[in-house]
Structures are given as C-alpha cells and as structure tokens.
Amino acid sequence: MRIRGRVVLAAALALSTVGTTGVALAVDRDAGPATGPSGGAWSAGAAPAAEDVRAAAGAGTGGRVAAPAAPRPAPVVTRPATQVAQAAPASVSYLSDRYRVAPGEAARRLALQELSAPLADTLAARFPDSYAGMWLDQAGGGVLTIAATDPAPVTEAVAGLPDARHVTVVPVRHSRRDLDAAAARLAGTLGVTAGRDVLVDERANEVLVLTGDAVPADDARLAGTLDAAGVPVRARARLDDSAIPKACDPRYCAKAPMRGGIRLDVPRDDGTVGGCTTGFNVRAKSGQYYVLTAGHCVVGGRHQRVDDTWHQFLGPKVPVGLESTNPVLAENAFPNDYAVLPYAKGATTRWAYPRRTVGNAPSLVNYWCVADNPACASKGSRDVPITGVTPYGAVQAGWVVCATGSAYTPAAGEQYVDSGAGAGYLPGTRCGEVIGKASGGIDVRVCARPGDSGGPLFTESDGRALGILNNGDPGEGPCTNPDEKNTYAPVSVILDRVNGRTGLGFQIATQGPLLTPPVGSSNR
C-alpha cells in the first residue's frame, strides 16, 4: 500500500558523540517540511505534502474534500546508542571481540540495528516497486546494506540520515514485492506454505525452495516449477546432513518465576530421561499461562505416551508441564517445532509470581553468565524482561542476538541427567550474529549443545523474543569453533501456526506467569 504523505525519520544519532541522542521513526501523513540533519529530521524522498493532496482532492470535487486527513501515527523510537550499549553488554562484547572494534563503534552498530527494522518498513512502503531488503554487513564495517532495483531514489532518500556514511544502497534485479509474489505462486503450485517451505533470500535476491520434508528433493514438479518462476529460484535441503537436534536435558533453577533458559527433564518410554530448555512464557487469550519449548522434546519415536516434564528429575523432582493432547499443542516439523506446555497440576503455584503481585511482574529470560561470555565480568548474571516478539520477516542478517541454554554433562557424583553436551560445556547465555534465514529458521553463529533445545533466542538490548533452538552443527564440550552455526525456529511463525490450528490466541507473555493476572495487564 502506498503512503501518500511524508515519511519522516526524526534522527539525531551523532557520529562524533555516539549515544548522546536518540532516533525516532514515524510514518507521518500530515507533516510539515522536513528539516536537515541539524534539525534531526529525515524525509524518505519527495512525496506530495498532505495539504497538497487535500487541495488536489478538493479541486476535483468542486472544492469538497473527499475524506478527512488520516491521523498521524505515533513514532517508533529507538534509544541512544549509549543506552543500547548499557542494556546489551554481551552484544557489545561480541562485536568488539569478533570484529576488533571499540565499544563506541559497537554501540553505534547496535543503535543502527535497532533502527533497521522500522527503516525497512518505511522504505518498503515508500518504494514498493524498488525496495528489495536490507542487512547489516558486520564484516564490512557495520554497514547497513539496502537492496533496490532503482538505487538512485532510495539513495537520495536515506542520504539525510546522520549515520548515512554507514548506509549503502546496492542494485539488484528484483524487488522484495516481486520476490514475495513469486514465492507465493511457487508455494501454491507445490501445495506448501510460503514463508516456511518457500521463502525469500534478500542477500541473494532470490527465492529458496526448501526440500526434504514437505517438498521431497526428488519431487518431479521441481524443475519445471523453478524454470517458470520468473525470478531466480534455488532449491536446497532444509537441514544440512551434519545437523543434529539439540534435544537433551537442561540443568537447574527451581525458583519462581518461570523464565526462559532453564532445565526441563522429560522421562521417555524406554526408561531414559531426555529433555530441553524452556523458551518463553506464553499466555492464551483466556489468561492461562504456558511454557514454550521445542516440539521434538515431546513428539518423536521415544515419546509415544503423554509426556510430563520436570525440573531436576533426579532430585528434587519439581513438576513443570504436560504435553497437551486436547487440543494438541505440539508439532515436530521444523520450523513448526514447538510444544506449548500447560502446567502440571499444582505446578503453577510453584512457578508463578505470588498471588498478590501487581505492577512489576515482567516475563523473563534467565541470563546466566558463562566463562566464554566475557561481558559477564562487568554486569554479571541477571534476568532480561521480555517486551514482545520481533516478526520473522523483520529479522536481518548481521543482527547481534543472544541465546540461553542449560545443556550439561555432570561431573562424577553430581545429581543431574547427562544431556550429552560433553565435559567442559557450561550452561548459560552466549551472544553471536544472525548469518541468514536460508533454512526457513534463524541461522546464527552462537554455540549450543544437546540439551539447549527449545531455549530462547532474543535481542539483549530490548528484550524481543526471536526464536527457540531446533538444530545445528555437531559438537560437544567447550565452545571452540567461532563459526559454529545453530538454527532457531521463529517464534512469530510458531504463534501463527498454533493460533491458526487452535484459535486460542497465544502470545508471548510480557508479564507473568501470574496466578491471578491483574486487570488490564498487557501480554502482547
């Protein structure tokens, strides 16, 4: 849909004094002339001002205005770079260590990352025939790279950004709108789902058909379908041959409130005990709370019965949740690899905030320091409040993200189930980089081990939920491979799927879990 007014970005992200000012983005349909950089405003290119539109409308209808002006929407605001850096020390540390940049430069990159998602929405609306996506090029200097079929107007539009020297526009052949349309057509022809089985690779400016499950690699329809797509299309296996599931046991943290990143033990049919890591608190529209983890924890060859989950199964054996069968709230088909677990009888009172809690009762992810996360020396272990969900389509390559897991191999005499993580691997939080979405999930450069499955992927600075761990490169023991890749199932895709199947209105909780949610509480 075209925006017929001005698109304004009020921005004062001063390069010489990183972090002293903030950035605000607004789609403003009734704004006055945009000022220059000294005024902190950015115009996304020439567009008729709202008063001109009204005048033109009046001239064509005998002086009558056909419709009132649209209301001015509220701006989307990102914070000063120093504030972002203070909220995300491990992300700053990751950038500093990986790319050998100073903390101030790392802060600038994180501020640009926060700006990139609303900027992408604005450019897609302003230049639908040209805009083709964007990503952060960390290796190339922390540059926000924007793809466009007609680079000139987009380049002109972003030239007024105060951080414009770290924004570049590159030419491509196909717009994001055309690629999305081609992906939808291909998915329809193959009888699969666009965004899950057929998706867009913005950096390659092409469409990907993922094979191996819904689309067999030897599907006779593939060759002709790809040739007729009208845009570049590539078929690739969804999962690498070497990928292994991260499904085993977490560690310990038996105290309220329930938070993402703690151990779940799952007794199996054959008498063994496996398990996963909690991802995020989930709330249905009814007000009932659940725990989100990976589906392969409770759906698989060794899970024929209704699974129950525990914390520290070998003692003190604290009950957590149950596999839901009415309705079914679990699947094991990546990226729909999820289990939404209702609490076991009586378990809510163990894991929820106290009944009289009101006000500050945020939904949390456990940020647990490990030796190979150097930022922990400065800020230490803590809880990160979850503020919402970043849609899968908005996640960009180059973003710095964090993940928590609780996989563990115990030393002799310790009363913990061995997850298979390998001696020397420590459960906790690590940060890394989004390297792509070519799997239909979120591919990251973050170390993980069996037992971390279902654990949360989030942005440290603003507490946005992104995904839960599904699979990744093989490995055990300490994190020694800086290029290790692991893949997370997108939370927004999971919510769309489970809500489409059940109509229960699940959302990632931003408060709770609460025994009695306060009136007017927000659980977006």
From TrEMBL:
InterPro entries from the UniProt entry: Peptidase_S1_PA, Peptidase_S1_PA_chymotrypsin, Streptogrisin_prodomain, Trypsin_dom, TRYPSIN_HIS, TRYPSIN_SER
Gene3D superfamilies (UniProt xref): 3.30.300.50, Trypsin-like serine proteases
Signal peptide per UniProt: 1-26
Region of interest (Disordered), residue spans: 62-82
Keyword entries, A-Z: Signal
Entry's Gene Ontology BP terms: proteolysis
GO molecular function, one term: serine-type endopeptidase activity
Keyword Transmembrane: no
Domain Peptidase S1: start-end pairs: 258-503
SUPFAM superfamilies linked: Trypsin-like serine proteases (SSF50494)
Name of protein: Streptogrisin C
Species of origin: Micromonospora matsumotoense
